[in-house]
Every structure is written in C-alpha cells, then in structure tokens.
Amino acid sequence: MAEQGARPDGGAGIRAAITAGEATLGIELGSTNIKACLIGPDHTPIASGSHGWENELVDGVWTYSLDTVHAGLQGAYAALVADVEERHGVRPTTYAALGVSAMMHGYLPFDADGGLLVPFRTWRNTSTGPAATELSALFGHNIPLRWSIAHLYQAILDDEPHVPQVASFTTLAGYVHRALTGRHVLGVGDASGMFPIDPATGDYDARMLEQFRHLAAAKRPGLHVEGLLPQVLTAGEDAGRLTPEGAALLDPTGTLLPGVLLCPPEGDAGTGMVATGSVAPRTGNISAGTSIFAMVVLEQPLTSVHHELDLVTTPAGDLVAMVHCNNGASELDAWAGVFGQFAAALGAPAEPDAVFGALFRAALDGASDGGGLLAYNYLAGEPITGLDEGRPLVVRTPDSRLTLANFARTQLYGVFGTLALGMRVLHGEGVAIDTMFAHGGLFKTAGVAQRLLAGAIDAPVAVGQTAGEGGAWGIAVLAAYAAARAESGDAAPALDTYLTERVFAGVELDVAEPDAADVAGFAAYLERYSAGLAVERAATQAL
Does the keyword Cell wall biogenesis/degradation apply (predicted)? Predict the structure, then answer.
C-alpha cells in the first residue's frame, strides 16, 4: 500500500490502467466532507478529490438539501478528475467499478414519482424517542433514535401528512445509488441501520416485519414496510450499472461514460470496517470524525438488549455490535481553530495541521487523568447518555491543573468519553477483542490519539497506512471486490479472505498496546466524566 499522503509516481502503468478503465472509484458522503478516492488494480490510492459541506438546522431538523448533495457529488468528482489529470496526465472516462457510501441511518422518504416528501432527516436528529422506545420493547431488539424505522414510525405516531404518500424510503447512500443506477437497493450493512437484519437470512427480520405491520395497522392499515424498504444486497453482488442520467449527475461535462458496474451502497460504518480490514469475528474498528463509533464483529449474539449497543452487520452480513456516539471530533476542531487564531494574533500564523500536531504532542505530556479537567464534546444530543441536546463544556475545580498539556489531553479524552462508556457495556457481555483498528483524520498525528484510545478502551489499537483515507477508500475496495466477483463468479473469495490476501497482505500496522498509566488515568477521568454528566444535563436545561 502507498503510504498515507504519498503521491504515486504517475508512471505509464498507472496511466494505462486509468485509460483502460481498470481503476476503481469510491465516493463517501461524510458529515463535513464528500470525498472521492481512485484506486489502482492493486488497491493503492492513486488520486482523490473532496468537497466540503455542512448540515443545516432547519425548523429544528438537522438536514442536507438534495441540491447540496448533487452539488457536492459533482464538486468531489471534479476535484478527483483534476487530481488525476495533474498527477497522471489523463482524464478518466470509465472505471472497473464504482461505489457510494454515506452517513448511515436517517430518513429519506419518497413518493411514487420519486419526489422527496420531507427534508432529509439525518442521523443527528433525536426526535424519535417515543418510536424508538416502543419499537425496542416490541422487537426485543435495540432500535436507536437515528434508525430509519424509528423515523418512519415516529412520523406515523405524529400523524404527519406525508406518511400516506410514502412509496419508498432509504438512506443517503441508497438515495445517491438510486440516482446513479435507478435501483432501489442497499448494502446489508447500511440496511441494518434501517430495519433489523436476520443474520441467518441476510435480509430484514421477517418476525419483526410482521410485528411492525400489526403495530402500524392501528394508524396506517395496509402499510407494508417491506414494500417500502430497499432490496438488501451483500458485498460483491451486482448492484446495477451507471445510467446516462447517473453519469451526467456525477460529471456534467459528459466525459464519464455510462455502464460502469456499481457495488451495493454502504454506510460509513461498513466502509470503515473494510478500510481497516476488520470484518472477521474478534476484530473491530473505531472511526473518528464528526461522530465517533466502534464496530466489533461478534462471535455469537449478545445475551441482553442494551440501549448503548446497536446490532448491525458487516457488508458481508455478519453480526456486529456498534457503539455509535453522535459527537466526535468537532469540538476538538473548534478549539484547534481558536489556537490557530491565537497564533495568528501573535504574528505566527500556522496551518491547521501544524496546530493539531502541536496540541496532540502537548497531550502526551498531560497528566494521565487529565489533571482534574473535564471536557464534553456534546454539540448535539447523545442517546447513550440520555441527552436530547448538547452543550460543549470545559469543567474544572479550583484545584485542577489547567495547563496546555492537560487541556489538550482532556479534549482528546472528551472525544473518547461516551464511546468508552459503551465499550464497557460490551466488555460486560464478555465480548473478546483481539485488536481494534482506528481510522480517520484524528489518527494522522502518529502515536497520540492512538495511544490515548488504547488506554481508554484497554485494548490494542492498530493504525494502518490508510488511516487517513477512511471510508472513500473502503467503498472503492468494495467496488473492486464487486468487479472481482463479476469476473470470477463463485470462484471469488469471501470478503474477509479477499481483504486479507489481496488488499492488506504485507501492509504494515502500527499497534499501540494500552499503557498501564493511561488505563488507570482514563478510568479515573471516566469516573469524573460520568458524575459530571449531571452538569451537562443541567446546562442543556439552563442554556
């Protein structure tokens, strides 16, 4: 694998692969960035492009408009093509395959003509409490607030006027995929965040579908949710071809040709698993961005239902316990911005990467317990801790040791705090983890966030050479797998074997073992953090 950030030499081999349509494209719509990643036949990233965007709070709903989705796709793709031309001197017209991934969950309901009935309700919304509680009790299966079925049932409970017109609903990845191919399908990993999946069948759970039908009949007789949900596909299956309309959506210049194979669209959790090679039992990964979540592949089902844990699947359909926290690194980003402004005010402006590097290195010198400081990164509500809204806070007592090192360490601890609470529930279930793989921009600064995370979860944390590439690379790999399956048919290996033997063979991993002092220090921090949630709760009520 190419080292993260390295530029391939742009040699004739790469140019020939691009020209022949042998490269594979992945596009991921994240919370703040839409990223496109092009990989060569050896799965090495050879070009990338991105487009920044932000969600909006409109009438109390966190949303992105479809116009911004379209503009973002075109912006990211145009940036990718420009990067290909700059690096390799050619302009791609087709690909071996392409794939789309995006933020999981949420609610995009459409009428029979394909019109969006209400603005996209993202995973960040926490207005579905009554629905999620009732469905969890009915199914005996935790239904988080952000799941698509919770949004649909809450709309039924609230008697929203759009409900009778719903002809289909999907996730953001499912919407983009349908715009590119015309097919209403979804990868099993993303589908498992819409409605519970039965691992034995790889499809929506039939018992729960029947239960939901009877439950909804009181208000909406004749509503059959199975007819509204996307068709479920597993990794490697043919999910359709790029239509002329889809090609024009991605590339209005007309250079991109239709007919490209698409893999099943996936959620960012699934692509994170692929990007870290963690799709086998006893492995897991942690993805840190605007949100932060852990995925652990289970050897067997959990013994109890826990509101802190979602049960979803890998892109191949294996059962996964997911700890999903709405709040990730955004508050840390905001503080880095403040320190960058301070540096500029002193006449020593610094690039954001330099500011982050300085803060992260300072964190290593902080007290193992944060010196008595507490940091809450709650910009939005956090279901794991029972908060419908968030108020970012820095809290300390008069005898706390307020230093740059302690401040930086507690900001990183704040990113991991809620996640650690969920991981402790998983540990109580007796789930064994050999190694957790971490990815996302938080881990670009070598040896800092990785080490502190190992202390927070008391498990080894591995970071690979694509830690900063993230889900766009992961969905590009899934697209390559679909192309391999299309070529080899039943002779193609299972996904975990494909990743082990063809993608990650020979890849060097940097593994941080938990440091005893960090483990003890974070445990002390987390005890204060749990007690201090009362302060966070009071802040949401008073401010």
Answer: no
Stated as kind and residue range, the H or E segment containing 58 is strand 56-58
Residue 47 near residue 87, CB atoms below 8 Å? yes
Amino acid present at 491: A
Kindly tell me if the per-residue pLDDT of 458 is higher than 70.
yes
Give the sign of the dihedral formed by CA 311, CA 314, CA 315, CA 317: negative
In DSSP terms, 37 is beta-bridged to 26, 48
Specify the CATH architecture of the domain 12-270.
Answer: 2-Layer Sandwich (3.30)
**Cβ-based neighbours of 78, under 8 Å, separated by 6 or more:** 49, 251
233's CB contacts (< 8 A; 6+ apart) are 185, 186, 187, 188, 239, 264
How would you class 486 by CB atoms within 10 Å of its CB: exposed for 0-12, middle for 13-18, buried for 19 or more? middle
**Residue 10 above 60 pLDDT?**
no
How many C-beta atoms surround the C-beta of residue 524 within 10 A? Answer: 14
Residues across the chain: 543
Asked whether residue 7 carries a pLDDT value surpassing 50, the answer given is: no
Q: What is the pTM of this model?
A: 0.84
E-strand stretches of 307-420 = 310-313, 319-325, 374-376, 393-395
Q: What are the sequence ranges of the domains in the chain?
A: 12-270, 330-422+520-542
Q: Report how far residue 377's alpha carbon sits from residue 442's, in angstroms, rounded to the nearest whole number.
A: 14
Q: What is the pLDDT of residues 301-311, one digit of tens each?
A: 999 999 899 99
Please write the tens of the pLDDT for every residue from 361-419. Answer: 999 999 999 999 999 999 989 989 999 899 999 999 999 999 999 999 999 999 999 99
Q: Which two tokens stand for residue 302?
A: 């959990």
Count of C-beta atoms within a 10 Å radius of residue 166: 22
